[in-house]
Specification:
The protein is elongated. Residues 13-18 have low confidence and may be disordered. It has a domain at 20-73. Strands 3-2-1-4 form a 4-stranded antiparallel sheet. The protein contains 2 helices and 4 strands. It has 80 residues and is α+β, with helices and mostly antiparallel strands.
Length: 80
């Protein structure tokens, strides 16, 4: 009975821990402008879990301090 409880506990822990995949490698950076002239300092990031590429807009300092080839995590984003 103790072995069963230990096994069930381990299964519960393993299934309740979800790996967050919001990090990857920067594959592109550029500055774009919308119709109103607002700048988007964008980084395109290839997700390290799914290999999907998604482009995000950041403030100038974040964009300037990170470069193509760097690893980068998007803290306010779920996996993509």
């Amino acid at each position: 009975m103790k072995k069963l409880l230990v096994i069930l506990g381990l299964v519960f822990i393993a299934t309740s821990c979800k790996k967050e995949c919001n990090c990857g490698k920067i594959v592109n950076d550029e500055i774009t402008f919308d119709n109103a002239g607002n700048a988007c300092y964008s980084l395109s990031i290839k997700n390290s879990c799914s290999d999907n590429v998604k482009t995000f807009c950041f403030d100038y300092n974040t964009w300037f301090d990170n470069h193509v080839g760097d690893n980068f995590c998007v803290t306010n984003q779920q996996s993509w």
